[in-house]
UniProtKB/TrEMBL annotation:
Pfam families: Exonuc_VII_L, tRNA_anti_2
Subunit structure: Heterooligomer composed of large and small subunits.
GO CC terms: cytoplasm; exodeoxyribonuclease VII complex
Assigned protein family: Belongs to the XseA family.
Organism: Pectinatus brassicae
Keywords noted in UniProt: Cytoplasm, Exonuclease, Hydrolase, Nuclease
Entry's localization field: Cytoplasm
Protein name: Exodeoxyribonuclease 7 large subunit
Stretches assigned to the OB-fold nucleic acid binding domain: 4-98
Amino acid sequence: MTIYNVSEINNYIYNLISADNILQKIMVRGEISNFKLHTSGHCYLTLKDDKSAIKTVVFRRAAQKIKFRPENGMKVIACGNIGVYERDGAYQLYVSQLIPDGVGELNLYYEQLKKKLANEGLFEEIYKKPLPLYPKCIGIITSKTGAVLHDIFHVASLRNPTVKLLLYPVKVQGQGSAEEITAALKFFNKHKLCDVIIMGRGGGSIEDLWSFNDEDVVRTVFKSKIPIVSAVGHETDYTLTDFVSDMRAATPSQAAEFCVPAREEQLQKIELYRTKIYNLVCQQLQYYRERLNNCQQSHVFKQPYKLLDTKYQCIDTLQLKINDICDKYITEKKHSLDILAEKLLLLDPHAALQRGYSMIYKDKQLVNSIKKIKKTEQIQINVSDGFFSATVDEIMEGK
C-alpha cells in the first residue's frame, strides 16, 4: 500500500473537485453568518441552512461588483465554484456573484443606502430650502431629447414667459449618467446662474431611474446652495433624490408649476393688494377726519383762553405760597442772625473797653499775667478812646 503525505492528499482532492463540472459552476442558497470584510477587500463568511454550513470566500474583484452590503442573517444566493484550500485541507465556496434571495440586488442596495443617508440626517426637514417666490431664471437638468424638457417649457411659457429657462443636458440613465448629473449640479452652484433647479426624467424601471439613487448625486443635491425640485419618474416612483431635494414633484409639469409663478395669478394678487391698500388708506383718512372734527368741536379749540385762565389762577396761587414761604424763611434766618450778633458783641474785647476796662500790651503781646512783665519795662495801655505808655514801678501778686 502506498503512503501519501498530507500535501499530496489535499492536492489529489483539489484535482478531483476541480474536474467536477457541477462544482465549478454552482449556485448555493443560504444564510450569511460570520461575515468579515478584510482590509485587503476580500470577504469571508459562512453560508448555512438549518442543517449544514460551508465556508465561503468573495475575493476583492468580485466583492467590488456587489452593490449591496452583505450582513449576517441575510438570505442570499451565491454563484461560483467549489474549491479546496490546500493549506488547511478544507473545501470552500469561491463566490463570483452574490444575489439577495427574495429581493432584487438594486432594491436591497436602495434600502440600505436610504437607511444610511437617513441616519446621517440628509433627509431632515430642517435642511429643506424654500423655493424663491419670483425666480428670474430656472436651471433644468435632464435629457435634451426627452418629453420632460418639453413639458417644463410648455408649462413655464403658459404661466410666465418672462422667466428664463436654462438647460444643462445630461444622460438620465446608463453608464456615466450619474457623473453628468453631478457635474450639472456643481456647475449651476459654482456659477450661480439660476434661482432654482429642476432635475428629473420620465418614468421607468428601477434600473432606468438608478442614476438618481447614486450616492454621489444624492450628496451633491444635499450640498446645493440653490433650491432643487426633484421630478423623477411618475407619481408612484420614488428615488433618493426625491427625499433629499427641497421639494418633490410628481411630474415635470408639476415641478414647473411649483417653480414658475403664474403671471395672471400674480397680477390678480397685485390688484387685490392694491385694493386692500386703498381701502386701508381710506379707512385711516376717515378715522383722522373724524378725530379732527371732534377736536374742532371741543371747547378747548373754541374758547382756549378759558383753559389759560385756569392755569393763570394756579400760577398766582403758587406764587403767593412761594412768597409766604420765602418771607417766613427770611424772618427765621434774620432772627437767628440777631442772636448770633449779640453773642459776638459780648465776646468782643473792644466792647469791654467801652465799659471802662483797658488792655495792656508789651511788645504788641497782650499781658494777662504779672509773670509776663518786669519792673522798669515799658508797656502800652489801651483804653476806649486810645492808648498811652507807662513804666512798671511795682509788681504785686494777688487780686
